[in-house]
Structure formats: structure tokens, C-alpha cells
Amino acid sequence: MNIEYTGRHFRVRDDLRGFTEKKLQKVAKFIEEPIEIRVLLEADKHRRIAEIHVSHRHGVLQATEEAEHMEDAINAAVDKVEKQARRARKKFMDVRRRAQRAVEEEQHWPLEVLARDSVSPGDGGPRVIKTTRLQIKPMTIEEAALQLSASKNDFFVFRDSRTDRVSVLYRRRDNNYGLITPEP
Questions:
Q1: SS3 sequence, the chain?
Q2: Which of 16, 140, 142, 168 has the least C-beta neighbours within 10 A?
Q3: What's the CATH number where 10 sits?
Q4: Among residues 38, 29, 64, 32, which one has the least CA distance to residue 50?
């Protein structure tokens, strides 16, 4: 954690540096390294202003606060930055969890194909000619209908997000759609 201090009409004392660094430790636990922090402390006639910019791998957090005393301004600015860091961390973790959950929900359903030698050509029954591996994704029936209309296939296999069951949507000869769902 690299902290750069700047004072405008104000000399940044060592005790304020230590106070600020101690407060910023709370922010650092929510953000991944590397962290660049710029602290601008400004003094006007009757007000003290603390401005904090935290640059990290996923963006920038910033806050400006003013108060009668510099410590109060620093506290308020650090609290704002900490709130932003918590929100950013929560958002980042939610995105990671959602992505992980989506990967877990996708199931691969292999289709077993008989080897050419195992099917005797004289039995006259249908033969499996092509094998397709499917990723079954959770979606609504409307989304599956859009996917089916965009594809050249006559059917679409999906996991219904309302019932959490595997379903098949197929194109009928009259250009309407049919839906096959398993019984509960």
C-alpha cells in the first residue's frame, strides 16, 4: 500500500500521517493489492478538507469531506471510501459467485453412440450417424424459443429455470413449437 500525502495551506504532520494510515488499514482489507492512495489535506480559514483517492486493480475510489477539525474530515472521508470499497468487494464477489453457480448449473449430457462394428448392418433398424454434445443451460421457455428460431435444428434442449428440469422444445411441421417436459 503506497500512500502519497499532499498539503495545501497545511503542513501534514507525522501524527496525522499515522492517524490516516491506521484508518486506511480498514479499507485495504477490502481491496486487492496493488493499492495507490493519494491523500490531499487542505486548510481554509474555518474549514478543513480531506480528499482521498484510492486506485486499485479494479478501479478508483474517492471521497472528499470537510469538517472543523482535520481528524474529523479524515474520518468522514475514510468512512466514505470504506463504504465504496465494501460495495465494490460485494459486487465483485457476487459476480464471481454468479459465474461459479452458472458453471455448476451447466450440465453436460453425453449421448452414447454405438460403434459402427457393434451394429450389424443386416438388422435394418436405424443407425446413429452423428454424435452431439450439449451444454444444457438454465433459461425460460421464451429464451429457448428464441434460441430455437435462431438455430437450424428442429429441437432445443434446455433446463427450464422455473421448474429446474430438463425440457425439449421442438419445431412442429406447422411451424409452431412443441414442448416436452418430464413428469414430476
A1: CEEEEEEECCCCCHHHHHHHHHHHHHHHCCCCCCCEEEEEEEECCCCEEEEEEEEECCEEEEEEEEECCHHHHHHHHHHHHHHHHHHHHHHHHHHHHHHHHHHHHCEEECCCCCCCCCCCHHHCCCCCCCCCCEEECEECHHHHHHHHHHCCCCEEEEEECCCCEEEEEEECCCCCEEEECCCC
A2: 142
A3: 3.30.160.100
A4: 64
Q: What is the pTM of this model?
A: 0.52
Q: Can you name the residues that pair with 5 across neighbouring β-strands?
A: 39
pLDDT, one tens digit per residue, over 64-93 is 999 999 999 999 999 999 999 888 888 878
Same domain, 92 and 29: yes
- Report which residue type is found at 103: V
Residues 90 and 113 in one domain: no
Give residue 159's domain range. Answer: 107-118+127-180
